[in-house]
Amino acid sequence: MEISVSILSIDYANIKQKLDQFSNCIHYLHLDVMDGNFVPNISFGPALIQSLRKESSLFFDTHLMIAHPEKFISTFVEAGSDCITFHYEATQDPLQLIQYIHSFHIKAGISINPDTPVDVLDLLLPYVDLVLIMSVHPGYGGQSFIPSAINKVQYLKRMKEEHGYSFLISIDGGINDQTLPLVSSYVDLAVSGSYIINAANPEEKLKLLMHK
Ligand code: DX5
Ligand code: ZN
Question: Which terminus of the chain, N or C, has less C-beta within 10 A?
Answer without folding.
Answer: N
